[in-house]
Design a protein that fits this description.
With 348 residues, this protein is α/β, with parallel strands linked by helices. Helices cover 39% and strands 19% of the residues. Bound molecules: adenosine-5'-triphosphate and magnesium ion.
Length: 348
């Protein structure tokens, strides 16, 4: 973990009363996309943002990134305004659409993003190597991304969001278009990043991704947060008990029924659990790979890029040494706190 939150409270995203109304050409309110959203996302947690199409998830994310100005409400990201350049340096973003230059190769694309962060050439090369391997695109790194399948483009997008080794990662539908093997690898990667102290805001329609990964979540509808809490708070059923055992012989099943019956419990379901389709799929693909079956698509992803495993300090300091020549000393530390902003949010 790369240290305490700059706020000192371990909170990387806080927004209060966040509201966005899109207006038409005549400035009349047209769509109320987000209304009065309060969110608090802690350092090192993987937080799920759910909701049906048009419920306001992407609009919320764009405001957290400083890409859209809120109509009302207040936001602190890493203790600062989201529009602050110093905030953006520590944030990685995977948009819901892959916006890639068709004629650049995967390597050139990542190198381009590395240049935007003004990384030195050697660091760019090392990080691009590691990220291409991590997302399983090293074998196709010289092909133009315009030729890539949708899932392969998502992989490039994910690698791009990690090039600056961000403290906060905002992922808008990261597994959309990915095959189940890649989706599982991305989920493992997100879990790993979370366990290493990165904060992840995960926006997805894959409910199982949220169940597998997120400690807490919010469910939006009509621009508002309708339910929020931990998985246990939202999903545990306090009125049921389930017991799973190794396969029971018929006689034992009858005995169990008898015992429960004596306690007046006759509403009993005893069945053989099914494995998840995901685990069968992964096994089938693994067997095909082991048999050497040819594919022109993406390969299995590799291990997590080493620079993402390091403490923030070493990898960041190399970038910041060249990017921050004219920044104030406060900017050079991992994002410093705007205590007034945090206070004003907390006081409400
Ligand atoms: N630039 C825009 N101009 C006008 N309306 C917009 C704009 N962007 C989003 N909206 C509207 O705001 C509402 C919320 O959209 P948003 O993209 O945030 O939903 P979402 O929850 O991300 O949906 P999805 O699951 O389909 O990605 C929708 O009614 C949408 O049409
Ligand atoms: Mg969206």
């Amino acid at each position: 973990m790369s240290g305490d939150s700059p706020s000192g409270e371990g909170i990387d995203i806080k927004c209060v009363g966040l509201t966005k109304t899109f207006r038409d050409f005549w400035m009349r309110p047209r769509v109320r996309a987000v209304e009065g959203v309060d969110l608090e996302i802690r350092r090192g947690e993987v937080f799920g943002l759910l909701g049906p199409n048009g419920s306001g998830k992407s609009t919320t994310i764009k405001m957290l990134l400083g890409l859209l100005a809120p109509t009302r409400g207040r936001i602190a990201v890493l203790g600062r305004s989201p529009r602050d350049v110093a905030t953006k340096k520590h944030v990685g973003y995977l948009p819901e659409e892959s916006y890639l230059y068709r004629f650049l190769s995967a390597r050139e694309t990542l190198d381009y993003y590395g240049r935007l962060f003004r990384m030195p050439a050697r660091m760019r090369r090392q990080r691009v190597d590691k990220l291409l391997e991590m997302v399983g695109l090293d074998a196709v790194e010289h092909r133009p991304v315009g030729e890539f399948s949708k899932g392969m483009q998502r992989r490039v997008g994910l690698a791009q969001s990690l090039i600056n080794d961000p403290q906060l990662l905002i992922l808008d539908e990261p597994t959309s278009g990915m095959d189940p093997v890649a989706a599982r690898q991305i989920k493992n990667l997100i879990a790993e990043l979370g366990s290493r102290g990165k904060t992840v805001l995960l926006c997805t329609h894959q409910l199982s991704d949220v169940e597998d990964l997120c400690g807490r979540m919010a469910i939006m509808y009509g621009g508002r947060v309708q339910a929020a809490g931990t998985c246990d708070e939202l999903l545990a059923r306090s009125d049921r008990t389930s017991i799973e055992t190794p396969l029971l012989p018929v006689g034992v099943v009858d005995e169990v029924r008898g015992v429960l019956g004596r306690h007046g419990i006759d509403e009993i379901t005893i069945e053989q659990p099914r494995r998840r389709l995901e685990s069968l799929f992964l096994e089938v693909v693994e067997q095909a790979r082991a048999a050497g079956t040819h594919t022109s698509g993406a390969r299995s992803g590799g291990p997590m890029a080493a620079f993402l495993q390091e403490h923030a300090t070493e990898s960041e300091s190399a970038v910041e040494a060249i990017t921050d020549a004219d920044a104030s000393p406060r900017d050079k530390a991992a994002p410093a706190v705007d205590t007034n902003l945090i206070d004003s949010l907390t006081r409400r």
